[in-house]
Specification:
The chain is of the alpha/beta class. The protein has 4 domains: 195 residues, Beta-Lactamase; 114 residues, Signal transduction histidine kinase, dimerisation/phosphotransfer (DHp) domain (Helix Hairpins); 156 residues, Histidine kinase-like ATPase, C-terminal domain (Heat Shock Protein 90, 2-Layer Sandwich); 117 residues, Response regulator (Rossmann fold, 3-Layer(aba) Sandwich), CATH 3.40.50.2300. The chain is built from 21 helices and 20 strands. The strands form 5 sheets. A 5-stranded antiparallel β-sheet has the order 2-1-5-4-3. The chain has a 5-stranded mixed β-sheet with strand order 10-12-13-15-14, with helices on one face. A 5-stranded parallel β-sheet has the order 17-16-18-19-20, sandwiched between helices. Helix 7 crosses helix 8, helix 10 crosses helix 15 and helix 11 runs parallel beside helix 12. The longest helix is centred in the first third of the chain and has 64 residues. The radius of gyration is 46 Å and the shape is flat. The N and C termini lie far apart (113 Å).
Amino acid sequence: MKKFRDYNTYFKLLILIISTSVLFFLLYVALYVYTTKQENNLYKTTQKQYYNEVSSIIKLYSKTPISTIIDITFWNELKKFTESKDENWYKANVASQFETYEVDYLGVHDIEGQFIVKTSNSKIKTKNFIPKEVMTRLYQSKLMRFYMKIPEGVIEVFGATIHPSNDPKKNKTKPSGYFFMARLLDQSYFKNLGEISSSEVKLVALNSKSNVEVDALEAIVKLKGYNQTDLANLVFKRSFNLHFRNTKEILVVLILASFINIFIYLYFSRKWIYKPLKTITNVLETGNETSIAVLKNQPGEFGYIGNLFEENNYQRKQLELSKEKAEESDKLKSSFLANLSHEIRTPMNAIVGFSDLLNEPNLSDKSKQEYLKIIKNCGINLVSIIEDLIEMSKIDSKQISPNYKGIDLDACVKELYETIRVTIPNDKELDLYFVENKTCISNNILTDEVKLKQIIVNLISNAIKYTVKGKVTFGYQINEEDKNIEFIVKDTGLGIDEGNLKVIFDRFRRIEDEFSVALSGLGLGLAISKAYIEMLGGTISVHSKIKVGSEFKFTIPLIYDESIPIPIPNQINVLNVAVKQNYQTILVAEDDNINFLLIKRILELKKYKVLRAINGQEAVDICRENVDIHLVLMDIKMPVLNGFEAFKIINSFNPKLPVIAQTAYASVEDYEKIMELGFTAYVSKPLDKEKIFELIDSIFYRKV
């Protein structure tokens, strides 16, 4: 007898396919049966809970009228009324409170069952509908609740016997009369019950057939009369979505698929496995070229074997395409590195070159000033390039997020206009125009002011850069309907061709023409602006024609600031700093020798006394020991204790001491973090001498 391992591969595979299919078929059937049972159990349990819930709601809904009728019917005055039948008293003391009882009918009968008086609204016109038998039963039970039919429809009736005030439990005295309250089961009644029970409520006749829906729960409450006979049914319906219909349908599909798979496996395993294996065996045994040609036409892996050379050619083409892509990537990378190297080396060349020329002994003062100006401008350009690279890196790593706050948009844009207008080079015959918004803004706009300003400055600066003669116009429009603000920057410059319009927002891409070559920059300005706009929830577009000009449009969401602004006192002006003296003492916390030397030389120009701390802990110790320190310039990144930690300690024992953060962390987020911690002011590296003096003077020359 053959062992299983002795059978051929096709037979083994066939056994595996059949056994696996049968196993899955049985599994799907078991899951279907289990799911059906679970669905039935869940529905029954939920249906039972729903009925109990409805019953409790009906009892609760009747609780208020029951409490009211109990309170009214042990009342001396009402007892006397059943004897005196004084309608004026009834109107003044009972009928006047009818609206508060939240019923549609009030009726009073004497002990003999004779009708005395009634009060009702427009819903119930019938005067007396209480049978004598009800009062006979009520005499014994003292309190009844039942349903009955009247010409206006089915009503819910509450009845109680009338007793003196000293008999609240109605077990000391005999009844003096009967008091009835009723409410009509109308649409208002059903609506209230529906809202309480989250159900659809309706009244149906006893013989009506109920159509139970699969996706709904139904609770039927029988409305019983005073003699416990059924009058009608109150039907509650609520949607029920916790069924397993989709699961069962999927399982049915899987069961059918299992059957179909068995036949498909048998057919295609013979076609795709048995025949190709037989052909391979024939090829291996005989080397028949005809068999090789047949094998090449087989599908799947066997066809791959027959078409090995064709596949090899295909792989070679793919490798060539991959090589071209890699070469293009390397080219772009090399182009970027070359551009970066060029943009950095250009200002560095000027800085190093003109610094070397300053050492010439016969150099005139005018030349020295010219060289120093060139060195300073090149340094500023270099810092701008580095800041763009850092900003783009932060955007890529998602370290930047919008800082929304309310701003006066009109004042913000006008301020930008005044700031940019004075920076236009005198050698350009160029005018800058601001088109004022015609729509009145009723409130401040909620957005990130810093990023919005940066976007506008980038676009206007580009327009000025590429416009030799003519005008640059910018403004904004409020679109209340679309809930956005559209900004427009338009110039009469060189324009952009169709090819470059597709890449101007890409990183490190610049328009390559004779004019652009003469301009510096990495080509990151528009990429950063686009990233900021998308961060704020807007879009940007551009339209341009060569030698006509360009028009950039971008939008941001129109969100009004509904918060109430809280005035923040100017920290610099309110600090208790001594009035300007001849020689103030300033502590400089700086671990870098060159940076400290620069700051010291700057401060000594104003004859300030300068102390140094080389780390945060030393700054804390000096401030604690020396009470004559008037100001601290605190570097943020220092050993032992950083600037943040040192500031917290100093502020704890000398909160009135002004501390200015001076750091190479120059992003908006860093500035906001520093000011939130309570620093007096902030200045970023590279340090500007005039800004430092202006900042220190604003502290020492505080307004008194």
